[in-house]
Amino acid sequence: MPPPPDTCFLCGDASAGVAPCRECDGVVSVCADESHLAAHRPRGLGRCLPFAVVESADAGRFFIAANDIARGEIVVVDEAALVAPSMIPGLYPANLLL
Ligand SMILES: [Zn+2]
Ligand SMILES: [Zn+2]
Fold first, then answer.
1. Ligand found nearest the CA of 67
2. How do the domains of the chain map onto residue ranges?
């Protein structure tokens, strides 16, 4: 199931502001929301990520590959929901440890 060509790969927007990504020859289309373009082409990564979000009545919203994925290729970049200090003594200053 390829991503619909005229809808944003992330939010499904199908308005006139949706355009094919120029960096990956339109593998996916992106809406005018800059955060959606950043999800497709994270700063510092230097390339587009090969995923899209689609929706079905049976399964809801889910990720699919937008093109072939090479072994070891980064598919998604996301921030950690929680970062905890290491329990290795001396790795962090004592005032950071609880
Ligand atoms: Zn969007
Ligand atoms: Zn792209």
1. 2
2. 1-98
Predicted structure pTM score: 0.73
Cβ 49 vs Cβ 42: under 8 Å: yes
Q: Ligand 1 centroid to 98 CA: how many Å? A: 40
Residue 52 has pLDDT above 90, yes or no: yes
Q: Residues 10, 11, 12, 13: is their CA dihedral positive or negative?
A: negative
Provide long-range contacts, Cβ within 8 A and 24+ apart, for 4-10: 4/54, 5/29, 8/33, 8/36, 9/36, 9/40, 9/51, 9/52, 9/53, 9/66, 10/36, 10/39, 10/40, 10/52, 10/53
17: left (phi over 0), alpha (psi -120 to 50) or beta: alpha
Cα of 22 vs centre of ligand 2, distance in Å, is: 6
Q: Is the pLDDT of residue 78 over 90?
A: no
Q: Are 14 and 6 in contact (CB under 8 A)?
A: yes
